[in-house]
Amino acid sequence: MSLDLKIDGPDREHRPDHLAQNVLGHEIDRPDGWLKVKGEATYAAETFPEGLVHGILVRAPGIGRVSCANLEDVRNMPEVLAVVRDERLLRNAAQGGANEAPVQGVDTAEYVGQPVALVVAETFEAARHAAVALTVEIDGVEAPVDPEAVVPEEPDNQISTRGDLDGAMRHAPYSIDVVYTTASMNSAAMEPHAATAVWDGEVLTLRGALQMLKFNRNELADSLGLPPERVRILAPYVGGGFGSKLGISADCVAAAVAAMELNRPVRVVQHRRDVFEVNVRRSETRQRIRLACDTQGRLTGLGHEALVSNLPKEEFFEPVLQASYFAYAAANRDLRLKAARINRPATGSVRAPGEAVGVTVFEAAIDELAVKTGIDPIELRLRNIPEKDPDTGVPFSSHRLEATLKDGSERFGWNERDPAPRQRREGEWWIGTGMAAAFRVNMITPAEARITLDGDRATVESDMTDIGTGSYVIFQQIAAEILGLPTGKVDVRLGDTAYPPGSGSGGSFGAASTGTAVWLAGMEIRRALAERLGCDESEMTLRDGYVTHGNRRVPLADLVGGGAFSGHGRVEPGDAQEKVRQATYGAHFAEVGVNDVTGEVRVRRMLGSFSAGRILNPRTARSQCHGGMIWGIGMALTEEMTHDRRDGHVVNRDFAGYHVPVNADVPPLDVYFVEELDDWAGPLQVKGIGELSICGSGGAIFNAIHHACGARLRDFPATPDRVLAALS
Ligand code: MOS
Predict the structure, then answer these.
(1) What is residue 97's DSSP assignment?
(2) pLDDT per residue over 386-402, tens digit each?
(3) 223 CA distance to ligand 1 centroid (A)?
């Protein structure tokens, strides 16, 4: 049995409105919190199967044909068990969730840093020693590594035009035509990618650091040449992913191949340098924005052209324009994405792929137009909110941009601001404020979950992951709500492909997708309980482990009796996604100081107001938003992977050279939610929150830099050298 739901339109039948437990929307503690604090939550490199041996990835120092001259010498080194040079090893990390097969092979290197061998030894130290001893020779080929130096592709499905943008630009009283750049970036999750593989002759069991297990299982099976039934993946705890763990990674396939060859459990942990080179990164972008408006600030023309890059044959292109299609109204439009094929490490999804850089740049350009027209930046945005999706003409399922702009501006004190730049000075520091809007597409993806009710204890099971996001606690809340139990009576088991396939963690769709599946599983149990009582589900109240119907109140455990109830929920997207445009919205505000002498920028405070459906747990939702805003600080000020101009290799491949914001960089962050209940978002009315808060946040900081010192920067990040150059 299973309760299945396809999201074709607004759902009123499966709503939580009549439920009594009242745990949704509250700051419930994470059940995994103490385990993590005490070190009892184990990660992929923290399992110790009997006979475990260690593998180290060896990577290519150049681009071209690969050979290893001293292979036999290394194989004969002490404690070395194997040097695996198997064509099944991954060339690029898989993209995750897509239909593309992973790209494999070790005979040629497509980018510097590509894995070309795995050295396995009895100890980690011996493996590392032998890996260093292995000589990798490259018969080099000329390969393009600079996106500006090649003729880009223009994929048809990435172009949207309407009217005459050139004409609108020519005739507008106000227009801007500007080019911005954003840097190549790394997900930089705290836990490095790692895998422990065990082969029992029949089934390959892998403990991995992965986000989307049902896809990862297929990718791993495909890579190994096994049917998926003979692969099991576990990832109960994952130390961050941010997109870099969406697809199966090099360590997983290498550990599995070696375990099958040696009949020993094999662990492979990526060195931080590997993390920077062999997993997907966010593409660098060059973005040209054209905006034309009338004297009232109403947009008449909107152009957004973006250049991104990826390796040859990869299908992913950073979807920079994703929000530009629907963010603002303008009759004359030209949106196009161009893709340069270059031999730098593969690009892929990194937190809020597309909008993170697209909205950030677009919102900086809108600020330029606001300054030019003399219209307040918030007012300019309010004047350009479209009535329906300007790209497809369908209505919006809900639209809360205005509400978040007004909420945020009031809380931030926007109206006290002198709009003129370069007005506030404190010692060496210019002080200024800026704002930006946030947009992010919202989606639901196929997901399943199971609940077993035994007495008055419920167990939720799904292969869904919790990558630090709060999946454990929100599923506990959802199951507790629908079954009328205190949250402590609900156990949540995640991260095992033996459980029903959830959505996986990606695209901010986890809470809505797998959460709805958990909800439906609970609804199925409610209906079975009501049947046993002889009433309709809506006439029965479940609360604190008791069932009330009419004037009868009995312990839930008595109604359940000796047997257990099991519910299975399944949700999938229907054609709702074609009938309405569904998105989440927000507003970012930032105050910065710009040092007139050193060019240093310090963020002094930040505030975000976000609208993203029903907030299941304000604490975990706020924590997500803190993360996104901090990423905005990184994007605006420090984060940049530098690629060598000759061969594209990543120059700064550790946390000393790639600077993610640390505590000293992060000021007080205020997060507010403008709650909305979007009928189109499934019965729980939950939407994605994780990625929304990065979309545009760096733009607010850039706009604040301009307001502070009067210099307009157009290259992210605003490092001191760039700021100084702009100041002079
Ligand atoms: Mo996300 S970038 O889909 O983990």
Answers:
(1) S
(2) 999 999 999 999 999 99
(3) 22
From the CA of 711, how far away is ligand 1's center (Å)? 33
**Contact 110/63 with Cβ under 8 angstroms?**
yes
The reported pTM is 0.97
Q: Is 695 in the pocket of ligand 1 (CB under 6 A)?
A: no
* CA 96 to ligand 1 center in whole angstroms: 9
Mean pLDDT of the region 667-687: 95
- Spell out the residues 6+ positions from residue 557 whose beta carbon is closer than 8 angstroms to its own: 455, 456, 545
Q: How far is the CA of 246 from the centre of ligand 1 (A)?
A: 7
Q: Which atom of ligand 1 is nearest to the CA of 690?
A: 1
Q: Which atom of ligand 1 is nearest to the CA of 245?
A: 4
Q: 220-256 pLDDT, tens per residue?
A: 999 999 999 999 999 999 999 999 999 999 999 999 9
Q: Tell me which of 284, 318, 461, 691 is the catalytic residue.
A: 691
The protein residue whose alpha carbon is closest to atom 4 in ligand 1 is: 243
pLDDT at 100 over 90: no
> What CATH number is given for 351-443+579-727 in this structure?
3.30.365.10
506 in contact with ligand 1, CB cutoff 6 A: yes
At 165 the three-state DSSP class reads: helix
Q: Of the ranges 86-100, 121-135, 166-180, 689-703, which one carries the lowest mean pLDDT score?
A: 86-100
Could you tell me which of 350, 264, 535, 387 has the C-alpha nearest to residue 256?
264
| pLDDT of 97 above 80 | no
Q: Which atom of ligand 1 is nearest to the CA of 244?
A: 4
Q: Average pLDDT in the 182-205 region?
A: 98
**% pLDDT > 70, the chain:** 100
Q: So where are the chain's domains?
A: 3-41+444-572, 53-143+188-278, 351-443+579-727
Considering the segment(s) 53-143+188-278 as one domain, its CATH architecture is 2-Layer Sandwich (3.30)
The pLDDT score that the predictor gives to residue 98 is 62
Active site residue 524: no
The reply to whether ligand 1 has any atom less than 6 angstroms from the CB of 507 is yes
From 283, 691, 695, the mutation candidate for ligand 1 (largest count of ligand atoms within 8 A of CB) is 691
Contacts for 551-556: CB closer than 8 Å, 24+ residues apart? 555/456, 556/453, 556/455, 556/456, 556/483, 556/484, 556/485, 556/529
The reply to whether omega before 618 is within 30° of 0 (cis) is no
User: Residue 586: CB within 6 Å of ligand 1?
Assistant: no
The pLDDT value given to residue 401: 98
Segment 500-518 shows an average pLDDT of 97
**CA dist., res. 524 & res. 50, Å (int):** 42
Range 504-521 average pLDDT:
97
Residue 182 Cβ < 6 Å to ligand 1: no
DSSP string, 356-399: HHHHHHHHHHHHHHHHHHT--HHHHHHTT--SS-TTT-PPBS--
- Cα of 457 to ligand 1 centre, how many Å? 33
Distance 30 CA to ligand 1 centre (A): 22
First vs last C-alpha separation in the chain = 70
CA nearest neighbour of 673 among 467, 474, 438: 438
pLDDT digits (tens, 9 = 90+) for 67-78: 999 999 999 999
Rounded to whole angstroms, what are the CA distances from 322 to 49, 152, 228, 327, 380?
45, 19, 33, 9, 21
In which region does residue 90 sit, left (phi positive, over 0), alpha (psi from -120 to 50) or beta (all else)?
Answer: beta
Domain 3-41+444-572 has CATH 3.30.365.10: yes
Is 351-443+579-727 in the same CATH topology as 53-143+188-278? yes
